[in-house]
């Protein structure tokens, strides 16, 4: 446990230390046996999670097997990067210039092959009760971090999710908070941020004192509502949402953080004027403004009001019945390549690389052996092996961790689970995952993670 200085405490320090008293445990729903306190003057750490639902194809991106039989290796070839020993797909050329600023992990695996089960397993750190469906038994890691850290006073929300319109429901991607209750749901931003008409719902500045006074009076009246029984935390959630709203009504900080028009056009174009690019740029703006956990979902790769090629699909679910995996990748990869590398470069250029940890992943990989539907190639779900990248967080970059066998079927070196990734993330956030628990619906303390070890090669 880090030394706690006797100097001035930040709000986060105060909450963490104060929660250790017995009087704070029941009210917070947390049993924080150990929490790391930030050293004085240390900026708040944060996380950006780029979520690729459907399952990105590891054999086409970060774990290519050029010497495997044709039915495994596929159509693409690896190319060298600026770090000897790190190869990526030839259709990710911008990755080759920033490999010294990210690390590839090739050996994470689990056992849930359904999208729902895979989402729940990966995002909560626990085996779900049901292998299908997207409603969580346990909270998503973003809600856990939010529960421990709490909400900043004023400014941007501390936990934010960006997704396509109509895809922003809390259970679409197993982002639910389970027994932590709706008060730690993310602030959701739906729509295409590359669209000139894009707006963040319910986020407008207050231009007159009279209008602000009216809204504050309304909040006061809502706060006097009877709260004699609240088994699901609904009233507590309403109070949390009101506090978020009040913070955004009384400051211009949030409105500016969400306003991409404030960015120079050359920066926006470097990220790409499409959903992927502008969502990645928005993530950078939000953590820079103080958000603690930002998830951006990258599904639809098309340009604003654009369509798909006939053999591409909406998300990363590249079954042969859904798409031609190689043609879909040729459509999707350039936008992904530009968005992710621009974000990595920007975090480093702006001095955010120690404070912000970037994670780019989906729920599982794809079958190493190619399958076909009416002559069209694709790959199916494969949780037994997957690849992901991390960047920043003050960690060691420019390396490959783990390896799979010659056909990309399963890990042969440094086998890990999603829990090891989340243990690393909680370490970055200063949350002692081994000694912090939450109270579930039955009153039992549930540890943040049942197991998992920070990845030593990164630290």
Compact overview of the structure:
With 459 residues, the chain is of the alpha/beta class. Helix content is 29%, strand content 16%.
Fraction of residues in H or I helices: 25-40%
CATH superfamily: Alkaline Phosphatase, subunit A
Shape: globular
Annotated CATH topology: Alkaline Phosphatase, subunit A
Read across the widest sheet, the strand sequence of neighbours is 7-6-8-2-9-14-5-15
The helix count comes to: 13
- Which structural class best describes the helix and strand composition? alpha/beta
Q: How much is the average pLDDT? A: 86
Task: Write down the Rg.
Answer: 22 Å
CATH top level class name: Alpha Beta
Number of strand segments: 19
Strand content: 15-25%
The number of domains: 1
CATH architecture: 3-Layer(aba) Sandwich
**Which spans have pLDDT < 50 for at least 5 consecutive residues?**
1-27, 33-42, 205-209, 223-229
What does this structure look like?
- Helix 7 packs antiparallel against helix 8, helix 10 (about 265-270) packs across helix 11 (about 275-290) and helix 11 packs parallel to helix 12.
- This protein has helices at about 10-20, 25-30, 60, 70-75, 115-125, 140-150, 210-225, 235-250, 255-260, 265-270, 275-290, 325-350, 420-430; strands spanning about 30, 45-50, 80, 85-90, 100-110, 160-165, 185-190, 295, 355-360, 365, 370-375, 375-380, 380, 385-390, 400, 405, 410-415, 435-440, 445.
- The relative contact order is 0.20.
- The model is unreliable at about 1-25, about 35-40, about 205-210 and about 225-230 (pLDDT under 50).
- The radius of gyration is 22 Å and the shape is globular.
- The strands form six sheets. It has an eight-stranded mixed sheet, with helices on both faces. Strands 1-18-19 form a three-stranded antiparallel sheet. A two-stranded antiparallel ribbon has the order 3-4.
- Strand 18 (about 435-440) and strand 19 (about 445) form a beta hairpin.
- It is of the alpha/beta class and about 450 residues long.
- Helix content is about 30%, strand content about 15%.
- The longest helix has 25 residues, at about 325-350.
- It has one domain: Alkaline Phosphatase, subunit A (3-Layer(aba) Sandwich), CATH 3.40.720.
- It is built from 13 helices and 19 strands.
- The two termini are about 15 Å apart.
């Amino acid at each position: 446990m880090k030394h706690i200085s006797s100097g001035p405490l930040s709000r986060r320090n105060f909450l963490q230390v104060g929660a250790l008293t017995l009087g704070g445990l029941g009210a917070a729903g947390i049993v924080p046996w150990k929490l790391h306190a930030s050293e004085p003057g240390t900026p708040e750490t944060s996380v950006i999670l780029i979520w690729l639902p459907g399952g990105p194809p590891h054999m086409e991106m970060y774990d290519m097997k050029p010497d495997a039989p044709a039915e495994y290796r596929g159509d693409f070839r690896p190319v060298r990067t600026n770090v000897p020993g790190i190869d990526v797909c030839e259709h990710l050329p911008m990755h080759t210039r920033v490999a010294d600023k990210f690390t590839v992990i090739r050996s994470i695996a689990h056992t849930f092959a359904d999208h729902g089960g895979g989402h729940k397993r990966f995002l909560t750190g626990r085996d779900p009760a049901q292998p299908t469906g997207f409603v969580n038994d346990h909270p998503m890691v973003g809600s856990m971090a939010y529960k421990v850290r709490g909400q900043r006073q004023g400014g941007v929300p501390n936990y934010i999710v960006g997704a396509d319109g109509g895809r922003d429901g809390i259970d679409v991607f197993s982002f639910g908070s389970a027994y932590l209750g709706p008060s730690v749901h993310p602030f959701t931003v739906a729509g295409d941020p590359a669209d000139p008409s894009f707006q963040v719902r319910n986020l407008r500045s207050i231009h007159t004192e009279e209008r602000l006074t009216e809204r504050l009076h309304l909040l006061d009246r809502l706060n006097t509502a009877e709260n004699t029984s609240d088994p699901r935390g609904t009233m507590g959630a309403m109070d949390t949402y009101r506090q978020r709203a009040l913070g955004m009504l009384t400051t211009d900080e949030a409105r500016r953080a969400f306003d991409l028009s404030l960015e120079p056009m050359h920066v926006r174009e470097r990220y790409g004027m499409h959903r992927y690019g502008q969502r990645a740029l928005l993530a950078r703006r939000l953590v820079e403004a103080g958000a603690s956990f930002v998830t951006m979902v990258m599904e639809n790769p098309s340009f604003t009001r654009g369509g798909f090629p006939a053999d591409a699909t909406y998300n990363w679910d590249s079954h042969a019945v859904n798409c031609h995996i190689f043609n879909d990748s040729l459509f999707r990869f350039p936008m992904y390549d530009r968005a992710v590398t621009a974000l990595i470069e920007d975090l480093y250029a702006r001095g955010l690389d120690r404070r912000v940890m970037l994670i780019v992943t989906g729920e599982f990989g794809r079958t190493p052996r190619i399958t076909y539907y009416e002559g069209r190639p694709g790959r199916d779900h494969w949780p037994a092996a997957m690849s992901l990248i991390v960047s920043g967080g003050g960690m060691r970059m420019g390396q490959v961790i783990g390896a799979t066998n010659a056909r990309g079927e399963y890990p042969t070196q440094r086998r890990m689970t999603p829990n090891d990734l989340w243990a690393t993330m909680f370490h970055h956030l200063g949350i002692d995952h081994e000694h912090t628990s939450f109270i579930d619906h039955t009153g039992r303390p549930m540890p943040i993670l049942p197991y998992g070890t920070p990845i030593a090669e990164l630290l």
